[in-house]
Amino acid sequence: MSISHLESNPVVEDHLIKTVTLTFELDIASDATPACKVHSGDLAGIAVLRSEGLTAVADAVEACVCYTTAVDNCGGDSVIGVILDASKLSGDILKVLDIQVIDQDGDGTAIVVTKHGVRGLTTGGNVAFSIAGAGIVLDAEDPTYLIEVKYKIK
After folding, report:
1. Strand order in the sheet with 47-50
2. Residue 76 burial by CB count (10 A; 0-12/13-18/19+): exposed, middle or buried?
3. Average pLDDT of span 117-140
4. Which residues contact 24 (CB under 8 A, 6 or more apart)?
5. Cα–Cα distances in angstroms (integers) from residue 6 to residues 11, 13, 18, 124, 150, in the given order
6. Could you give the residue ranges of the DSSP H alpha helices within the chain?
7. 112 and 132 in contact (C-beta within 8 Å)?
8. What is the average pLDDT value for the chain, to the nearest integer?
9. Using CA atoms, how far apart are residues 84 and 125, in angstroms rounded to an integer?
């Protein structure tokens, strides 16, 4: 089947138009005290990190998300949460198709992403997920994550 045939199919065209891929970086500046870490990234105010000792900003977007408990483990098994404020994204999100997280610095040996809510969406319509990183020591390392979220809009 040729690509031109796919592009002329209205069902496929609709699917392609309504699938959005959002790619951005998130950075964490290390500190031995969990609440003193600094989060930054490409989508400040839209993509919000939730780490041990720094939960208030993410909880202000939506408080009733059942994140994996944030852990700032000097032993190297850290867990952080991320919430995307859907009110600041274009289009009404129907479902999250996929979330990929790449450790740009190679600090972690394995990254596990857990989507929260139903179809990747919280009750408030936001995208929330946790990143568990084996080998990530947040009191000494400054990870930079490249995150790709693929979702469907109405």
Report:
1. 47-50, 77-84, 127-134, 110-115
2. middle
3. 85
4. 41, 42, 43, 47, 146, 147
5. 9, 8, 15, 35, 21
6. 3-7, 10-17, 56-61
7. yes
8. 83
9. 10
Q: Enumerate the domain spans of the chain.
A: 3-153
Task: In whole angstroms, give the CA distance from residue 101 to residue 78.
Answer: 14
Alpha carbons 7 and 34: distance in angstroms, whole number? 50
pLDDT greater than 50 at residue 150 = yes
8 A C-beta contact, residue 103 and residue 143: yes
DSSP state of 45: T
Contact 148, 100 (CB under 8 A): yes
- Sign of the CA dihedral with 9 first, then 10, 11, and 14 last: positive
In the chain the beta strands, taken as DSSP E runs, fall at: 19-29, 38-41, 47-50, 77-84, 93-103, 110-115, 127-134, 144-153
The one-letter amino acid at 29: A
Structure-block tokens of residue 86: 């859907």
Predicted confidence at residue 80, as pLDDT, reads 85
In sequence order, which residues have a C-beta less than 8 Å from that of residue 92 and are 6 or more positions away?
86, 125, 153, 154
Amino acid (1-letter code) at residue 129: F
CA-nearest of 128, 142, 65 to 93 is: 128
Query: Hey, what are 121's tokens?
Result: 């969406």
In this predicted structure, the answer to whether residue 6 has a pLDDT above a threshold of 60 is no
